[in-house]
């Protein structure tokens, strides 16, 4: 699971980090925001719900942001976190589509195992990456919506835990605790997956509830 840190490094700049959206003509600043964040947002959403739906969601995200620009408070969070928060809310209307896609991908794991059992090592190596992706998809499908959003905003969108907290409107401590719990659950339920999603860089806060609430 590749973390999209480079997108943040390319897009982030002092002027776009916490812009003033309250001016009389919002078009210039929104044009810059679109140029900076639309492409990484598109890639993130495409991994979750497919390219076609992602295109629509990106467009809708910026339309919603434009209409609600007066609600953005630079002192409360970055523009990037705000945009990803809007996109996440829109994405939740497509959660059934996403879950079905993850489950369909997960079925490839069994097919891949059958193929590798009957072929030589070189063929097995070629299907290994597909198997890992399928196994990860099955684990993601088993997570609750809130846990999946938190994990993927960090692992696929490359947001920092503080930005995830801003995007989801929850305390930063909740994000760290949730990440710790979910990563621990992934290690227990999909130990063969060696990805960024299972690396626990959180504060180590314990939570008594399971990954599926």
What does this structure look like?
The protein is globular, with a radius of gyration of 19 Å. By secondary structure, the protein is mostly helical. Residues 1-14, 114-128 and 201-213 have low confidence and may be disordered. Helix 3 (27-49) crosses helix 5 (79-91) and helix 9 crosses helix 10 (172-189). It has helices at 5-11, 14-17, 27-49, 51-67, 79-91, 95-117, 121-142, 145-155, 161-168, 172-189.
Task: Spell out the blueprint of helices and strands.
Blueprint: H1 5-11, H2 14-17, H3 27-49, H4 51-67, H5 79-91, H6 95-117, H7 121-142, H8 145-155, H9 161-168, H10 172-189
Helix pairs in contact: 1-3, 3-4, 3-5, 4-5, 5-9, 6-7, 9-10
**CA-based gyration radius:** 19 Å
**Treating each run of at least 4 consecutive H or I residues as one helix, how many helices?**
10
Helix content: 55-70%
User: Which whole number gives the mean pLDDT?
Assistant: 77
Question: Can you give keywords for this protein?
Answer:
mainly alpha, disordered N terminus
Please provide a brief summary of the model.
This protein has helices at 5-11, 14-17, 27-49, 51-67, 79-91, 95-117, 121-142, 145-155, 161-168, 172-189.
């Amino acid at each position: 699971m590749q973390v999209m840190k480079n997108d943040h490094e390319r897009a982030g700049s002092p002027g776009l980090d916490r812009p003033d959206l309250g001016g009389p003509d919002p078009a210039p600043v929104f044009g810059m925001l679109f140029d900076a964040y639309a492409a990484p947002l598109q890639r993130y959403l495409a991994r979750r719900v497919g390219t076609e739906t992602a295109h629509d969601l990106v467009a809708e995200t910026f339309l919603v942001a434009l209409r609600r620009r007066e609600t953005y408070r630079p002192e409360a969070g970055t523009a990037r976190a705000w945009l990803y928060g809007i996109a996440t809310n829109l994405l939740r209307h497509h959660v059934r589509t996403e879950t079905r896609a993850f489950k369909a991908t997960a079925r490839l794991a069994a097919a891949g195992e059958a193929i590798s059992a009957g072929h030589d090592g070189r063929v097995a190596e070629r299907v290994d990456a597909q198997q890992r992706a399928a196994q990860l998809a099955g684990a993601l499908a088993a997570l609750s919506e809130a846990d999946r959003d938190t994990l993927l905003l960090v692992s696929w969108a490359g947001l920092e835990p503080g930005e995830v907290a801003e995007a989801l409107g929850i305390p930063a401590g909740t994000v760290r605790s949730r990440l710790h719990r979910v990563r621990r659950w992934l290690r227990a339920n999909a130990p063969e997956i060696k990805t960024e999603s299972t690396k626990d860089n959180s504060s180590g806060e314990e939570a008594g509830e399971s990954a599926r609430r």
